[in-house]
């Protein structure tokens, strides 16, 4: 196929979610995964070297074109974006679900020391966490985990990319920001 | 009357200031700049109590969790005052009861901060989206249609329940959902293969619950005549066919 | 301003409608219209000479990046594989089938209070529900259930991931400061 790179670029340009390599393969009916991979890396390099306003990133198991973080402030001005407020409680709960998944509501509440139903619900509605199934315990409690959208929003290829939790012994040296 | 209304108007929940007792405790430990593995328990407990008192004095509703923590702190403080029974000092520091959960909680507080520092979508980085589909997307979708997510499905479900009586959905419980799920899976197998032996359906089961769920699914399917259950005359093997 | 061209490119990339020159000017607080115009022409030229999958066009009084028409067929193929969009009635009916399956049309209509034959047919055509069999009742009514495609589209491992009403209620309300 002529112009494989340009065609892939046009697909990346219109895709609403990260585009998986297999998806590109099946849409273009190209047997050669390596050709696709080469086209993708060459696009990524060109965006760098040509100093484009966007870059190609691998996120949530696929490829996606995103604007450069250093231009975020201008885009926020254009879009009149208000801060996507997730409360501290929301972020804490999200972090617990991300690191401890598959996790029960009672596990989250044990760590946070407070009722977390409302926060879990908010995260569910925002599509950041999902119901993964049920534990074989009395009442068949719901098991929670994070979603692909979580990976997309926090720029993670997959869950393995989450930084390891800080060692307990290192705690107490620096303190979390008290944004109160 | 007006006076009472004023009071409720200014009522704040402690939870609005601190997400919970752990959050308050982190704040105190941080403010005092102490090592979490060597918390001056008497002083921290006192400050914690003062905080609760202050909250009460300004009419803040102190949630039960804060009181439970207050009791725990007081208990630890009293244990610290008792001489150790074990001469060799092997006995665990009573403060560990609070240090361990505090340390774990802190880990996730840091993790949440790390997440916030990443290049977040729709804040630091943006996608191209929301185009009305004129170019390269000429055949659009019919108007009035929206793309769906699981939560929208659940929303639709809740809307119906609001409109009609919830009693139509009394039979929707985790248990019945698991039976419905199994029915769907058996229907998948029959769609693919036409028939399956009774035994095979139990091959993958691991727990007693799973076995009961499969059995209930088969019974329900037989009742609805979605399946026919036949036994081979000679081998005695029971086979399930599409109804 | 450094990187004026790249910043303008990032704005063009995210803009949902053609971007007017004056809008760029006001967002970037750049007084010099000519500098903006130069950046725009230079972007347009680069997209041509670098054989990008998209081009810059002036349309409806503004500027917009669009995919090249010659790649339209590939983009349409990509879009065909997207999850279907559903009407309100479709969502409701699908929710009832998901929660109450195996279920009859008359059950669905009893709950919704309206004729649902057309909606069920649409869901069948889209492969979201299937005919599981027929009841041994007058008229041999059809029994409906959801499909594997339904699970795929809603990103469900199995039906156990559907929360019950009671569970939704137990989670309580969302946090007011989290909901936008």
In words, what does this structure look like?
Chain A has 180 residues and is an alpha+beta fold. In chain A, 44% of the residues lie in helices and 14% in strands. In chain A, the strands form two sheets. A three-stranded antiparallel beta sheet of chain A has the order 3-5-4. In chain A, strands 1-2 form a two-stranded antiparallel sheet. In chain A, β1 and β2 form a beta hairpin. In chain A, α1 packs across α3 and α5 crosses α7. Chain A is globular, with a radius of gyration of 20 Å. The termini of chain A are far apart. The model of chain A has no long low-confidence stretch (mean pLDDT 87). Chain B is mainly alpha-helical. Chain B has nine helices and four strands; from the N terminus they run ααααααβααβαββ. Chain B has a three-stranded antiparallel beta sheet with strand order 2-4-3, covered by helices on one side. In chain B, α4 packs antiparallel against α5 and α8 packs across α9. The N terminus of chain B is likely disordered. Chains A and B meet through α1, β2, α4, α5 and α6 of A and α3, α6 and α8 of B.
């Amino acid at each position: 196929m002529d112009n494989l790179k340009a065609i892939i670029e046009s697909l990346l340009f219109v895709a609403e979610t990260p585009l998986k390599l297999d998806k590109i393969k099946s849409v273009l009916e190209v047997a050669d995964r390596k050709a696709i991979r080469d086209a993708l890396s060459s696009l990524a390099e060109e965006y760098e070297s040509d100093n484009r306003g966007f870059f190609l990133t691998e996120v949530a198991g696929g490829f996606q074109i995103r604007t450069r973080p250093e231009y975020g402030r201008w885009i926020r001005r254009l879009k009149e974006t208000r801060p996507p407020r997730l409360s501290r409680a929301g972020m804490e709960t999200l972090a617990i679900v991300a690191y401890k998944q598959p996790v029960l509501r009672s596990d989250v509440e044990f760590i946070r020391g407070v009722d977390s139903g409302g926060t879990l619900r908010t995260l569910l509605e925002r599509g950041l966490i999902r119901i993964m199934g049920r534990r074989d315990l009395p009442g068949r409690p719901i098991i929670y985990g994070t979603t692909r959208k979580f990976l997309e929003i926090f720029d993670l290829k997959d869950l393995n990319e989450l930084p390891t939790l800080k060692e307990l012994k290192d705690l107490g040296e620096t303190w979390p920001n008290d944004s109160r | 009357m007006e006076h009472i209304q004023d009071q409720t108007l200014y009522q704040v929940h402690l939870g609005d200031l601190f997400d919970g007792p752990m959050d308050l405790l982190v704040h105190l430990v941080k403010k005092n700049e102490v090592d979490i593995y060597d918390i001056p328990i008497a002083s921290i407990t006192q400050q914690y109590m003062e905080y609760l008192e202050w909250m009460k004095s300004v009419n803040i509703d102190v949630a039960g969790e804060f009181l439970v923590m207050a009791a725990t702190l007081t208990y630890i403080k009293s244990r610290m005052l008792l001489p150790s029974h074990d001469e060799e000092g092997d006995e665990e520091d009573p403060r560990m009861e609070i240090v361990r959960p505090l340390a774990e909680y802190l880990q996730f507080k840091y993790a949440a901060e790390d997440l916030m520092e990443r290049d977040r979508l729709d804040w630091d980085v943006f996608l191209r989206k929301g185009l009305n589909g004129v170019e390269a997307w000429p055949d659009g979708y019919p108007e009035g249609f929206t793309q769906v997510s699981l939560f929208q499905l659940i929303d639709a479900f809740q809307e119906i329940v609001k409109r009609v009586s919830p009693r139509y959905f009394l039979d929707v419980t985790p248990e019945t959902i698991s039976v419905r799920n199994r029915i769907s899976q058996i229907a998948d197998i029959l769609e693919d293969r036409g028939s399956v032996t009774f035994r095979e359906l139990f091959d993958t089961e691991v727990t007693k619950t799973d076995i009961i769920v499969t059995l209930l699914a088969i019974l329900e399917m037989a009742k609805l005549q979605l399946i026919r259950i036949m036994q081979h005359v000679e081998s005695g093997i029971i086979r399930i066919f599409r109804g």
